[in-house]
Amino acid sequence: MVSRPHGGRLVNRVASDSRREKILAEAAELPQIPISVEKAIEAENIARGVYSPLEGFMLSEDFESCLTRMRLASDVPWTLPVVLDVEEGSLVDISEGDEVLLTLDGSPTALMEVEEIYRYDKRRTAVSVFGTDSPEHPGVRRTLKMGDLLLGGRITLVGSVPNPYERYTLWPIETRVLFKEKGWKTVVGFQTRNAPHRGHEELQKTALAFVDGVFINPVIGRKKPGDFRDDVILEAYRALIRHYYPRDTAVLAILRYEMRYAGPREAVHHAIMRKNFGCTHFIVGRDHAGVGNFYPPYAAQEIFREFPDLGVTPLFFREFFYCRRCGGLANEKTCPHPESDRVRFSGTKIRELIERGEVPPPEVMRPEVAEVILSFEDPFVR
Amino acid sequence: MSRVEGEKVTLEISKELYERAKKWVESTSDFSSVEELIEFLLGEVLSEESGEQVYSPEEEEEIKERLRSLGYL
């Protein structure tokens, strides 16, 4: 049996055909709030159960509870705010109790029942979530630029967000059916935003030794210049699975989601999302969801101690490397040899090699994976 | 052995296990008593056993069709 949805029930806030038609027929009379593509994706994730038990953007009670206790008001673990921020001046003729239409580029995305409009302290929010108010932190910068008001309330999805990777998009209800059909009772979730090197493969396979299947779930979304392109990541994983995974042990599907880089708090959030997809286990490696030097390397593992009731088992790993004397992949828990024997998986070095059109050594990256990456004219975001 | 008293049932567990549970409860803020801990654990185990299906048979068929069309099945 795969894991139960977080909070006990898989949320479905997608309008039925008849409800959708009714909402769209009334759309012209509803106040509209334009939202960004990132917020539209958040709405879709809420409606499709990725953020179960949330049924909408957070009310102040849940928001406050999330900041101070890392739990919803109902006591269910929840570590990152999921909020809809707006500028004060944009709320003409909208008040609590109204229904509004959230629109993306003029098209209706979701109906929102505005249950609450409330103020919040941006700096305090940033410090609570990111553990810092340094403007060097991308999450802090984004938080400080948010609108002054938050709108809380349930949503009903009426539109879809343009998705170039529809073929790789599965929702929690679908992965649950898929895992059941495959006969998987235990599934480990793997979060990534990179093309796979041998260290990633070792993490997944070490976990796979104990469970029935691995759910490889790359995050697709806004990226930094120099990151691998989304299509490159997907093709690289396809090659890896095809050549190096036993049949029917891995599922590859994307998650559209904007990274917050909130380190420990975000690691828990990542685990919760994968629990909703049906994962029973979740891999937490070194500096999970971190950025720069804002978080100690294994802080994202330690935070899980605070959630004995999370309902998904975190699997903690030390960083893997290739050890020349061991003749294979190892980590500091399994290898006694000095640093001079070890080859570290440096993303920067791999990128430099690929930028020069060179194939990384096989102990760092599988040749089939490198070949796929190098087949792209430019595999990086510019 | 168990006793039913109104809406509650008294269960008997070994003293040693109770003492260990009590010590654990006191070391964490997640549960206020051993009774609360045991209710939580039993609830978790039983709801996992019951399976609590999150989709109807009709939905399941539609989903399988999509999964097949995408090559996942």
SSE map:
The complex is a heterodimer of chains A (382) and B (73).
Chain A: H1 17-25, E1 32-34, H2 37-47, E2 56-57, H3 60-69, E3 84-86, E4 99-104, E5 107-113, E6 116-119, H4 122-130, H5 138-144, E7 149-157, H6 172-182, E8 187-192, H7 198-208, E9 213-220, H8 230-244, E10 250-252, E11 255-256, H9 263-277, E12 281-284, H10 299-302, E13 313-316, E14 320-323, E15 328-331, E16 342-343, H11 347-355, H12 367-374
Parallel strand pairs in A: 1-4, 8-9, 8-12, 9-10, 9-11, 12-13
Antiparallel strand pairs in A: 2-7, 3-7, 4-5, 5-7, 6-7, 14-15, 14-16
Chain B: E1 2-5, E2 8-11, H1 15-27, H2 34-50, H3 57-69
Antiparallel strand pairs in B: 1-2
Explain what this protein looks like in three dimensions:
The complex is a heterodimer of chains A (382) and B (73). Chain A has 382 residues and is α/β, with parallel strands linked by helices. Chain A folds into two domains: 6-157, Roll (Sulfate adenylyltransferase), CATH 3.10.400.10; 170-374, HUPs (Rossmann fold). Chain A contains twelve helices and 16 strands. In chain A, the strands form three sheets. In chain A, strands 1, 2, 3, 4, 5, 6 and 7 form a seven-stranded mixed beta sheet that branches. In chain A, helix 4 runs antiparallel to helix 5 (138-144). Chain A starts with 16 loop residues before the first helix and ends in an 8-residue tail after the last helix. The model of chain A has no long low-confidence stretch (mean pLDDT 95). Chain B has one domain. Chain B is 59% helix and 11% strand. Chain B has helices at residues 15-27, 34-50, 57-69, and strands spanning 2-5, 8-11. Chain B has a two-stranded antiparallel ribbon. The longest helix of chain B is centred in the middle third of the chain and has 17 residues, at 34-50. Chain A binds chain B through residues 1, 4-5, 8-10, 167, 170, 173-174, 176-178, 181, 251, 308-309, 311, and chain B through 28, 30, 40, 44, 47-49, 51-52, 54-55, 59-60, 63-64, 66-67, 70, 72-73.
